[in-house]
Design goal:
The chain has helices spanning about 1-25, 25-30, 50-55, 75-90, 140-145, 160-175, 220-225, 240-250, 420-425, and strands spanning about 40-45, 100-105, 110-120, 125-135, 180-190, 195-200, 210-215, 255-260, 275-280, 285-295, 305-320, 325-335, 340-350, 360-370, 380-395, 400-410, 435-440, 450-460, 470-485, 490-505, 550-560, 565-575, 590-600, 600-615, 620-625. With about 625 residues, it is an alpha+beta fold. The strands form four sheets. A 16-stranded antiparallel sheet has the order 10-11-12-13-14-15-16-17-18-19-20-21-22-23-24-25, with no helix packed on it. The chain has a three-stranded mixed sheet with strand order 1-3-2. A three-stranded mixed sheet has the order 4-6-5, with helices on one face.
Length: about 625
């Protein structure tokens, strides 16, 4: 009896699951007639400037298509009002100030809706010209640059006018005049065809920063917060410096809340006092991480399963000075078969955010791996070393980096006469290096760049006076530019990149390791070729990498529909063993098209490329699936 009841309950649960699977929300929504109507058709009337397709793009209500199998396009009243305002806005920003939109709908017996969009466009108003009265002589060039976007003969855009007015106020607020008043009057002709714009600027009184106080600190020294401020008592007022001060204070990682506000701002004082309000984070933290991995010893074919344990303790605000320390330990154990310790690593880190009283972050980390001798690994490899890093911000978008790396490796329980051969087989190299880099990045969004540029000059010295097993110098120069072709809020970009690389060994009897050489071909360098297949090859046809790299890319990126975009691109370049081997005829050229789907973490793209300049290579095409743009 009990078994029969259990079976009945089991089959009931399965049946209920199928009902939910196929009926979706119908159980909670009631009968089909209670569901929101499916939008069968959207009709647009009265439009002459914009097509019906363009107007529908502005609307959140969409026609139901055959591919809307799981989520129908349904009608919602609140969306109808939003769409009415969106269509109105489309006309208003294009000079149709009197345009009005009406949307009504009808629902048939099948619960299918038909929307009718009625548009009264009116007369398009264009800019005749503009005048500026008042202002300050020393800011004329900046305000003229802002006003240059107003061009006679173009449609009057009230939204653009509001942005220009705000930006003019910002110019004055960043130069000591936060109480500046700007009036923008619009004189429209009798037939509404033309508009004369008249700006009147009243700077007001010059303002300087008053006293600055700090609130909310209990663990942190006050000077730690004050040194991040770019505003100083007695200096000329600047809104930009206020925002920069807030950003710098927050970037220390010491606070969960930062605000820098004027006291009694409603009274418009000439020397406003400011208060920096802060909420501190807890300084100490503990981390535990446990995971499973795979390890394949040199003398075994099968992989071994490992359990990896990481323990970490840190303090992000040591004694209230903003200095940071961290201690961590990592252990890996072979499990299931042998149950023994495989490797251990211990690490100590330290960060000094202000070196020698300047905003030059310095950090170093030291590590030690004692090595483990076991049945699986009948030898012990001991290693220790560290990294020392300096960075310096120059202006807003430019940074300098300097890094020193030291490493020492000792091998035990291997006969001395076979030690060097053992190191080569295991890929053991004592590596000591110094890196210096300059980087400038003005891209507002590095994942989907629509404007700005990126520049990096990277220098690396391995070995030399530092010692070690490898000795070479490496240089990489990268420049990218992104030009907006259409409206700033749309994806319509011409992107270009040039990348050069050079590596030179410093000793004739030494070689540049394989992983330090240059490679090209693939989704992020030269499409139309498989990953890392361009350049020098050995007698077996395997790619060996090279010492000279030249890559050039150009592509047009545009929006397509919904979350999709497309690109048309050209890639060129190659890899040479040494600079003396360079030949223009070796340069490879490819071209193609790509499709992107935009996600919160960046675009996922599918590119198709064909070889154009290929020498004696076949003219075949190739597909590339990748995350993010090629550059």
């Amino acid at each position: 009896m009990k078994s029969a009841i259990c079976k009945a309950v089991f089959y009931s649960l399965i049946l209920t699951s199928f009902i939910f699977l196929f009926e979706g929300n119908s159980l909670s929504a009631g009968p089909p007639s209670a569901e929101k109507p499916v939008i069968k058709k959207i009709e647009v009337y009265g439009n002459t400037l914009f097509s019906a397709k363009r107007i529908k793009q502005e609307m959140s209500l969409k026609e139901n298509k055959w591919y809307n199998l799981f989520k129908k396009q349904r009608f919602y009243k609140w969306k109808m009002e939003n769409d009415r305002l969106a269509v109105d806005s489309l006309y208003h920003i294009n000079g149709f100030l009197q345009a009005q939109t009406g949307i009504d709908y009808q629902v048939d017996s099948l619960n299918q809706g038909r929307l009718r969009v009625n548009i009264f466009e009116g007369v398009q108003t264009k800019v005749k010209g503009f005048t500026v009265k008042g202002g300050l002589e020393n800011l004329v060039s900046k305000q003229d640059k802002e006003l240059s976007s107003l061009k006679p003969g173009e449609p009057l855009n009230l939204s653009q006018l509001g942005v220009i007015t705000f930006n003019l106020k910002t110019i004055y607020a960043n130069n000591g005049y936060p109480y500046c008043s700007i009036k923008a009057e619009i004189d429209i002709s009798q037939d509404s065809a033309w508009a004369q714009l008249n700006f009147e600027i009243e700077p007001g009184k010059m303002v300087r920063f008053g006293d600055i106080s700090v609130e909310g600190l209990s663990r942190t020294h006050e000077k730690v917060a004050r040194r991040e401020l770019t505003i100083k008592s007695g200096e000329i007022y600047s809104r930009e410096k206020i925002l920069d001060s807030e950003q710098r204070a927050y970037s220390t990682g010491l606070f969960t809340y930062v605000s820098l506000d004027a006291k009694n701002s409603s009274e418009k004082p000439e020397n406003p006092d400011f208060v920096l309000k802060l909420v501190e984070r807890k300084p100490s933290y503990v981390g535990v991480k446990l995971g499973l991995g795979q390890y394949q010893p040199q003398n075994l074919v099968a992989d071994l399963t490992t359990a990896d344990l990481t323990l970490e303790w840190g303090n992000r605000n040591l004694a209230g000075t903003a200095r940071k320390i961290s201690l961590s330990g990592f252990s890996s154990f072979v499990v299931f078969k042998n149950w023994q310790n495989l490797t251990n690593r211990f690490k100590f880190g330290f960060v000094e955010p202000w070196l020698f009283g300047t905003r030059t972050p310095f950090n170093f980390d030291l590590y030690y791996e004692p090595g483990v001798k076991s049945v699986i690994q009948p030898y012990r490899i001991e290693s220790y070393g560290g990294n020392f890093n300096f960075s310096r911000e120059y202006r807003k978008f430019t940074k300098f980096y300097l890094t020193f790396s030291y490493q020492q490796v000792k091998v035990y329980d291997i006969p001395s006469d076979t030690l060097e051969e053992f190191k080569r087989e295991q890929g053991i190299n004592i590596r000591r290096k110094m890196d210096f880099a300059v980087e400038s990045d003005t891209r507002p969004n590095p994942f989907v760049p629509a404007s700005g540029s990126y520049f990096q000059l990277f220098n690396e010295l391995v070995g030399g006076f530092l010692g070690g097993d490898n000795h070479f110098y490496k240089l990489i120069w990268t420049w990218s530019r992104y030009n907006t072709l259409g409206k700033p809020n749309q994806i319509d970009v011409l992107a270009t990149r040039v990348k050069l690389g050079y590596v030179q060994r410093l000793s004739k009897d030494k070689y540049v390791p394989t992983f330090d050489r240059f490679y090209a071909g693939g989704a992020y360098t030269i499409r139309g070729y498989s990953e890392n297949t361009l350049g020098p090859k050995d007698i077996e046809g395997k790619n060996t990498g090279g010492g000279l790299m030249l890559i050039a890319n150009s592509e047009i990126r545009k929006a397509l529909f919904w979350k999709f975009g497309y690109t048309v691109f050209l890639d060129a370049g190659n890899i040479w063993a040494e600079p003396k081997n360079f030949k223009v005829s070796d340069i490879r050229l490819t071209g193609g098209v790509g499709l992107q789907f935009f996600t919160p973490i960046g675009p996922i793209r599918l590119d198709y490329a064909r070889r154009i300049l290929r020498d004696d290579e076949p003219a075949e095409g190739m597909w590339h699936l990748a995350i993010l743009y090629a550059f």
